[in-house]
Design a protein that fits this description.
Helix 1 crosses helix 10 and helix 2 packs across helix 3. Strands 1-3-2-4-5-6-7 form a seven-stranded mixed beta sheet, sandwiched between helices. The N and C termini lie far apart (about 35 Å). It has ten helices and seven strands. It has about 240 residues and is an alpha/beta fold. Strand 6, helix 8 and strand 7 form a beta-alpha-beta unit. The chain has a single domain, classed as Alpha/Beta hydrolase fold, catalytic domain (Rossmann fold), CATH 3.40.50.1820. The chain is globular and about 40 Å long.
Length: about 240
Amino acid sequence: MRVSGRADAGAPVVLVHGIGMSHRYFRRLAAALRRRRTVIVVDLPGHGASPKPGRDVDVGEMARALAVVLAETGAGGCVLVGHSMGAQWVVETALQAEELVSRVVVIGPVVDDAHRTVFAQMRALAVDCLREPPRVNVVVFTDYLRCGVRWYLTQLRHMMTYPTEDRVARLRQPLLVLRGERDPIADVRWGRALAARTADGRFAQVGGAAHVAQSTAPLAVAARILTFAPSPDRAVS
């Protein structure tokens, strides 16, 4: 876990990676956000620097682990941001620990209704690799190697079966759905549909970006997050 930024600048922003990944592909977004907010970046169990559990951990249990981290760091009322499968983990955390989460942001959320087989996911990931710059692909694939095939496949099974659209419909917090306009993994129809499922949902696209928009367009993503969840002295109606 890494904490940085301004401690007096409104609700902290917590960044949660996707399947197989770590905090590393949030570095540019964290740098953009920390000018205005406290930023907390985590490596969930089995990812990045965090050790692998000796047993299976499903979405619900991963969310409980994240809630414990939020409580221990005093990050109550945080803006919880999840990318890809991280969208599932943050949605579930927001449902389980409502008192700790004020707003939810999902970037490139999975699994959309066009990619509900492992083959469809792998094909979309291959297309995305062609749309990302080499520096992003280096981070992605080195993190995948560090995660390992066994843990990746364990989490993939949970990712494919988690009912994202049903769970977001239960959210009490405002939800922002973000996607890169060239994202082949989370399509535009899916993003709009997720936002429409909530009582207070919004949808936005990041021009020119593919799936890893937070790394390729960090300033644009940061601006969207800060507009959605302004600090008290900058609150807008």
